Every structure is written in structure tokens, then in C-alpha cells.
Amino acid sequence: MFTNDQGRYFISNKIWDEEFSDSWISDQKMGKSQPPLEKPFVEEGLLPLPDPLTVTLKKKDITSIIHDRKSRRVFTDEEITSGELSYLLWASQGIKEIMANNYATLRTVPSAGARHPFETYLYINRVSGIEKGIYRYVASRHSLSLLKAGNFSDEMTEANLGQQFVGNSAVTFLWSVIPYRTEWRYNLHSYKVILMDAGHVCQNLYIACEALRLGTCAIGAYSHEKINRLLNLEGEDEFVVYLAPVGRYRERRNPK
Ligand SMILES: Cc1cc2nc3c(=O)[nH]c(=O)nc-3n(C[C@H](O)[C@H](O)[C@H](O)COP(=O)(O)O)c2cc1C
Hints:
two-stranded antiparallel ribbon
């Protein structure tokens, strides 16, 4: 277990004041080669997604999108389209540029040192034309890779401590972190910035959902063991840090 003092140290920036301490001797400084920008994948069998920039938005006014954003936990049984899913993936983790020598990716969200330590997994429950199952988003190809087909709604609800709207959503975004991508450069400073990075990813998902009139809700209450087992992650070198279900919702009429 860790203490409150350690927790506060972790969210403080005291490490920056100890610039010459051991905490800053990163593998990058030691000349070690950097880890890959994304997990390996097999090209064959990838499921390409529609061009996200051709998707029609229902709302474009940024002020009303920001104003109307809220956490939505009641979804209808309707499907969402593969175009909508494509837009949400692009908005939350899409790659805009790969820098020379595969040094870094530049994406639709910011990340400390452009380390982008996340992988996106999806539990697809109701997306038109896509088989139910657990997938990984291959950002460099803007494609999906099927990990396991099937209905995992009950397991998803159980892993989210009984939050049924997660298991019943049309699709759930699950962001895992590969800490070494950030540790390679920032060593002990990584843990603070990784979680700050994660906030940007989920916020972009909220904003993109609002533009498509879809609902989402950030989820921090889940079982580490159950969620990682569901995604076949070992839970040390890669594990889930954040997730968010997405679905259609009905506009509530204003009471007269
Ligand atoms: C880091 C984080 C974790 C959260 N975890 C959950 C959760 O597990 N379950 C849930 O229903 N809402 C969760 N929420 C949503 C918050 O309850 C919600 O953002 C808050 O009540 C404010 O409402 P709003 O998003 O509609 O403005 C989480 C939000 C954040 C930012």
C-alpha cells in the first residue's frame, strides 16, 4: 500500500525541483533505444474504418458543444454507425503525423513529450456492420484488430463494479497504458503526466460524442484484475487506466 504523503508527492511537481537527482536518469538519457510507438499488429485481417473526416456532425458550434457536454448514463438499444465510431477513435487517439525516424506520433490530443503511452481497446456491442467482440484500435492504420469475438456485456458490467450502463452501451472505449513509453523519457515523473494525458483523451471523446449527439461517461470505478483479464492484459507492463461507454440517448423534453 502507499501513503497519503506518497500520493501527494506523486501529484506535486517536486520531482522537477530535484532535476539532478537519480529520478531524472531516464533510459533516454542513458542512450537506450525507445520503445515502439504502438503495439505490434498483423496487417492481415485488419478491419479498416471509414474516413473520419467525411462523417456528418450533428452539431458544429463549439460553444454549445462545450456547454451541452455532460456525462450520460442512459443509452437506447440502437446501434451506432461505423462512421461514428471512426470519428470517435480519430478524435480521441487519431494520428495526424509520424515524426522522422519513428520518433513520435502527433495526435488529435496532446501528450507530455508526445510519448502517447496509450492503446485503445473497444468492446463493440452494437456498431452497425461490425461483429460483437473485443477489438484493438490500430491507430497507424486507422483500423480495428479483432481480439476475441462474442458478447461480453455481463463481464463488462461485472468488471465495472455493477455499472450496467457500461455493459449495455453500444461501444465501450478502454484505454490501457504502456508506462515504459513515458518512463523511457520521464522516469519517475511519468506517473503524473500519464494520467494528465488520459484526461485529454477522454475529454476529446466527450466533445466528439456531443458533436454526434451520442452520450458518454468517464469511468474510473472498475476492477483492475477483471478488466485486464477481459482484454488479455497482464496488468504490469500494460493495464487499463480509464474507460468510457458510448451510446445513443433520448433528448429529455423540458417539463412544462
Ligand atoms: C476521472 C473520472 C472518473 C469517473 N468515474 C465515474 C464512474 O465510475 N461512474 C460514473 O457513473 N461516473 C463517473 N465519472 C463521471 C462523473 O461522475 C461526472 O463527470 C460528474 O458527476 C460531473 O458530471 P458531468 O460530467 O455531467 O459534468 C467520472 C468522471 C471522471 C472525470
